[in-house]
Design goal:
The complex is a heterodimer of chains A (412) and B (370). In chain A, strands 14, 15, 16, 17 and 18 form a five-stranded antiparallel beta sheet that branches. Chain A has a four-stranded antiparallel beta sheet with strand order 1-29-28-27, with no helix packed on it. Chain A has one helix and 29 strands. In chain A, strand 14 and strand 15 form a beta hairpin. Classes of the chains: A mainly beta (412), B alpha+beta (370).
Chain lengths: 412, 370
């Protein structure tokens, strides 16, 4: 329809003289952002717990004289800090945060003790700190003997306690056979009661040069699944000391009655990094490389609720990645976050796969000339994606919280 | 050897031309004086013929004005209105700002003058000046968590441009301009990662082509002629370059240690909305210089549109400032305060009016007679 002169003039005046106001942009840009958190020194983003309008960020802060402490930050849905608290002694490294059935948080940290002169290895013990949702300390427990390493990877909350999993060099824990290559890291799981007393402990009885229990899940009242990687010789024709994903079942008294079919290749090291639930089973994500090269292809394995291997393989997202974490996506498939190693630094890579484990899209965060490290990923009920990590700005490393739309973009 | 001779000949020719012209002008001055005497003596018929030769020569505008004015009066007395009108039109061509004075000029000449105007239909102008660009924030988009403080500050810019005015009458005109502007501002975020700690300083510079349309009202009398206007402009951003300086301050061994890092020049054009709109308000004073004007102009442009693209974080960019420097733009509108000096060149157009303004002459005469 042809506009009359007056209509045209009115339309021009309406459009031409309209003024962009605050209301025109209300909320749009707040739905995605990047925010940095920190103080003096270096702060590393490790893990997060997110609801639609509240995010708890777990990090490590390293300040003057290399003092490192746990940092817990609560933000609103737009990334604005509500409160910020620090816990622990002088040399703590935050590792994991989990929600307890009571709604509190368990924070796992590794406490650096020093270097073993004999092996040049860093020596740690671990601590589990229970805090309220408002960040108030409830209690804590420290586990480990001086000069033996208990390096914890994850804590799993139980209705009557919690399990800490990782690896250990503590041969007094349970002496193994010391098969070549030299035994360095034995799989470790420690079950704690609600009062923080140790209920049971276990380490693998076969030698691992590299290996760790990455995550535990409760199977039944007296059994747990331990998701591990290990370079030990596994059942099913394995002949080489290279790492594979190798889950176990752990009983409440600490025994390991069964192990499940391993996932991984026969010639490369598949280092498990994270395990998450998926409908009807578990999703394991790790890195496939040839050690000592730590970067490689993303390697996944899916298992049913009884640990049967459903599928495994690589994700076509590049071959210089170090997996960090993953979560099941409500749109089908998985969100995987990894650190991409570059000639001049590293960036954070977020990859969305479909249910067939093919890449749907990926996004990169961080400067290509600086060192950025992936932490964890979460999907919000509205499909937006949160990523926590460490981003090195021009002069310093800070905790970074990134919120993007369901296709990894900073837009609606 | 040849070259000095050529210069000498050219010099002599020039001198001769000047002397001849000067002689001609002197002669024509005498003729005009004689014609005036004839007019005063009531001998009208010979005057056009007396002046004809000199009028065909290239005389000075002042002489031509007086001669054609004499001719116009003569033709009026000879009852030749067409000749009078032709002559008065030539008076205005000689001096577009000539006005009859009812107090001294004959009434029939004053009436004749009311049928004519030399008001310029179009006026050209050029200007140059300096500007500052206040930022009006729509939304903050700080990447730094915690309590920070931030402040925009003004940086001087530069502009030049030109335009054409269409004059509705002596007072009201509409103008269309094209201007080039270099604008700049500074933005500082303080207390990053703690009170008294890090600072981020952004220096941002934009190049614009601005096309304003204005409606002006101007005084039309006096040596100094104030004017004011309202307008609207469409602003096209050509480029936007920025540098970021980050000052990282940490407490080390009880003392604050500072590390300063400056970014290379960052191209922000892809982060900007390239077409923006503004409302203008301004004014100034025109100073009469012969038939032209010099002017001083002050203009405030009120930015109507958000200059920053809402989706301005480019995750795939190798040196995305949000990742390298922790900088992301606020959403804002950009105003501009400009002070200019310039020159106006009116394109005078002597012409006969379709409707003579004799009524106003009559009223003026009536008023004076009282």
């Amino acid at each position: 329809m042809k506009l009359s002169g007056i209509n045209f003039l009115l339309a021009f005046l309406l459009v031409g003289f309209s003024c962009d106001s605050k209301k025109d942009f209300e909320g749009d840009f707040k739905k995605y952002f990047i925010k940095y958190y920190g103080e003096d020194g270096t702060q590393e983003g490790i893990d997060l717990i997110a609801t639609q309008d509240t995010v708890w960020l777990l990090g490590t802060t390293r300040t003057d004289n290399n003092v490192s402490r746990i940092m817990l930050i609560q933000t609103d849905g737009e990334g604005n800090v509500r409160w910020e608290k620090k816990f622990g002694e002088a040399r703590e490294n935050a590792r994991d945060i989990e929600v307890t059935p009571a709604g509190d948080f368990l924070i796992l940290s590794n406490m650096f003790l020093g270097q073993d002169i004999g092996t040049n290895e860093d020596v740690y013990k671990f601590k589990v700190l229970r805090v309220s949702r408002e960040g108030n300390k409830i209690d804590s427990v420290v586990f480990g003997d001086v000069w033996t390493t208990q390096y914890a990877h994850a804590v799993t909350a139980l209705s009557d306690g919690f399990i800490v999993t990782g690896n250990t060099t503590d041969e007094n824990f349970l002496t193994d056979t010391g098969l070549p290559p030299p035994d360095q890291e034995d799989l470790m799981a420690v079950i704690f009661n609600s009062d923080n007393t140790v209920r049971a402990t276990n380490v693998s009885t076969s030698a691992e040069y590299t290996g760790a229990v990455v995550k535990a899940f409760k199977k039944s009242d007296d059994q747990y699944y331990l998701f591990t990687y290990s370079d030990r010789i596994t059942s099913g024709g394995d002949t080489k000391y290279e790492s594979n994903f190798n889950p176990f079942v752990l009983t409440d008294n600490g025994s390991l009655p069964t192990d499940a079919e391993a996932a991984g290749t026969a010639t490369r090291d598949e280092i498990l990094k994270y395990v998450c639930r998926m409908p009807g089973g578990f999703y394991e994500i790790g890195t496939s490389s040839v050690l000592p090269q730590t970067a490689g292809m993303l390697y996944y394995a899916t298992r049913s609720d009884d640990l049967s291997l459903i599928d495994e393989g690589t994700i076509d997202a590049g071959d210089n990645l170090v997996a960090a974490a993953a979560t099941y996506s409500s749109s089908g498939g998985f969100l995987v976050v990894a650190t991409e190693m570059l000639p001049t630094g590293s960036t954070i890579r977020l990859v969305k796969t479909n249910i067939s484990h093919r890449k749907e899209w990926s996004a990169t965060f961080g400067s290509t000339s600086k060192v950025s490290v992936a932490g964890n990923v979460a999907e919000l009920p509205d499909g937006r994606v949160l990523v926590i990590g460490t981003i090195e700005l021009e002069t310093q490393k800070k905790i970074a919280l990134i919120k993007v739309n369901p296709v990894g973009e900073f837009m609606n | 050897m040849l070259r000095p001779k050529v210069f000498a000949i050219i010099f002599l020719c020039t001198i001769c031309c000047v002397l001849v012209k000067g002689q001609n002008q002197e002669e024509c001055e005498l003729i005009l004086n004689r014609a005036t005497e004839e007019f005063n003596a009531g001998h009208f018929y010979g005057i056009p013929a007396m002046l004809n030769d000199c009028l065909n020569k290239n005389q000075r505008s002042g002489w031509r004005q007086r001669a054609y004015l004499l001719l116009a009066e003569t033709y009026l007395l000879l009852d030749d209105p067409f000749g009078a009108e032709r002559s008065y039109l030539e008076v205005l061509r000689s001096n577009p700002e000539f006005r009859t004075d009812p107090a001294i000029d004959p009434i029939d000449l004053v009436y004749l003058s009311a049928k004519f105007t030399a008001t310029p239909v179009f006026t050209l102008h050029g200007k140059i000046g300096t500007n500052v660009s206040p930022v009006r924030t729509l939304h903050m988009r700080n990447t730094f968590s915690g309590i920070t403080s931030d402040r925009y500050s003004l940086r001087p810019g530069f502009h030049l441009g030109g335009g054409i005015d269409w004059n509705y009458d002596e007072n009201i005109s509409a103008g269309l301009e094209i201007n080039y502007l270099l604008t700049a501002y500074r933005y500082k975020i303080s207390d990053v990662f703690g009170a008294g700690r890090d600072n981020l300083l952004l220096n941002d510079r934009q190049n614009w082509v601005r096309i304003p349309l204005v409606i002006k009202y101007a005084d039309d009398e006096g040596k100094y002629r104030p004017y004011g206007y309202l307008g609207y402009s469409v602003d096209f951003m050509i480029s936007d370059k920025a540098t970021i300086t980050f000052t990282d301050q940490n407490l080390v061994n009880g003392e604050i240690q500072s590390i300063d890092e400056e970014s290379p020049v960052l191209n922000f054009k892809s982060r900007r909305n390239l077409v923006n709109r503004s409302l203008l308000i301004g004014g100034g004073v025109k100073y009469k210089l012969g038939l032209d004007y010099a002017f001083v102009d002050v203009r405030y442009s009120l930015g109507l549109t958000n200059v920053v693209k809402v989706n301005s974080i480019d995750a795939d960019a190798a040196n995305e400032p949000a990742f390298t420097w922790g900088y992301t733009d606020n959403l804002f509108r950009l105003d501009n305060l400009a002070v200019s000096v310039g020159y106006i060149y009116p394109l005078y157009k002597p012409r006969k009016l379709k409707k003579a303004r004799t009524g106003s002459v009559f009223r003026k005469l009536k008023k004076e007679s009282k």
